[in-house]
Amino acid sequence: MYKEIYNMKSIIDNLQKPDGSKEYPARSCRDLQYLQNNFESGWFWIDPNGGLPNDAIYVYCKKSFKDNEQNIESCVFPDESTAEGINKHWNAPRTENLWFSNFIEGFKITYELSTLPQINFLKIYSNNAYQNITITCQNSNAFNENFRILGVNKEVVESNDSRLLVLKDDCKTASGFGETIITISSQESDVLPIVDFQPADFRKPNQGFGFKVGPICFS
Predict the structure, then answer these.
(1) For range 6-29, the mean pLDDT
(2) For a Cys staple, 47 with which of 11, 56, 125, 189, CB 3.0–4.6 Å?
């Protein structure tokens, strides 16, 4: 009897103070940080909708400091199979405004089916969200007026949109190999996560590009 009471108490304690396990996920990484002493970055289970833990998602909780203030991010990764494409010359139809998914070997960036509803709850709880896309280039300009991003809500983000910021641009000379890192950040994060993009410069036979889409991170 005492053992049963002890087990029940342990279950209640874990529900009240989740540990980020699959059985006892927290609502977000920020909540997990509040509940744990000496919290550090790592992989944890969270359940933003607060329901049964069977739809919890596995995320990377990122702890950082900026201007002496601690910041905790809940980062959700795209499917590994669609998060990146190798650097090569990609064949594409001769049409304008061509999304990568319309290339002959192209595809959309996807996320686990259970992840997207949970992302919507993270949007409610968060003040900001961002996501990076890195374009590797071969004799091509990765970021110009032709570059665009397609959000999960089907919104098209143009290259001159204030939500886009180029963090690094080795490709602007369109000569040799390099990489361009672009981040999209928004307090109104309905556009995220990224599901497709329009490459900027790729038609010539000696040109190539690759890409890698990072996680969408909420804070």
Answers:
(1) 69
(2) 56
